[in-house]
Amino acid sequence: MSAQTEAASTVQELTQSIGAEIRLSDISKAFGAQKVLKGLTLTVRPGEFLAIVGRSGCGKSTLLRLIAGLDSQDSGTIAVGRLENPFSSSGVRMMFQDPRLLPWKRVLENVGIGARGNWEPKALSALEDVGLATRAQEWPSVLSGGQKQRVALTRALMSHPQVLLLDEPLGALDALTRLEMQQLLERVWLRQRFTAILVTHDVTEAVMLADRVVLLEEGNVTLIHPIHHVRPRPLGDAELGGIEARILSRLLETKG
Questions:
Q1: Is pTM, for the whole model, over 0.90?
Q2: Region 218-225: what's the mean pLDDT?
Q3: Rounded (to 5) percent helix, strand, coil in the chain
């Protein structure tokens, strides 16, 4: 293969692997008398890493569940790229704070849940990417919290989804493990270029990972802050610290 052909093949592969655009238009959702989302409109660009922050109860997790097809909106429309069935295993996947591993299946089997054909070599390769190939035949009960989340991430990405939704997946981890998982998540996203939406209470985490940080207040978008900074982003960077301070200041202005 010539260098020109190889380069064209690489470009085609990257183009095919980029994530789907997500278009949310006038989304409303209520639980009884409680209105959680109120006419929310937002577009997430293909392959973008978007972080959503806000106080508890502002509608962050509800929004993710609507995009994932786990619940339905009361009004408005949700479009995920051109996928005919965006909620299939190859369309939209979701990762939760709880890794949700099946305790009666070994690590490799947990990664392969829902996979078809000769999936084991692919699952082993994916585990190797997250440093867990040697734990493939172990039970989830012997893994640390960070290792369990690595398995959950690997399982979510086995089908190369176009969209990955992350609902506080690192919230229960200790500080060092959380930082390592942030770095791993960024590396995998840069390689696969799926569209990622992260819900987090940690503004530092949002600023370190996202292309844009969205603030939800009382069921609607009140702030969108773009982050134009090189990756990987250095810890303690003054510019990033300033962005974090501005978002936190806006959050603290919100009445609890």
A1: no
A2: 94
A3: 40, 25, 40
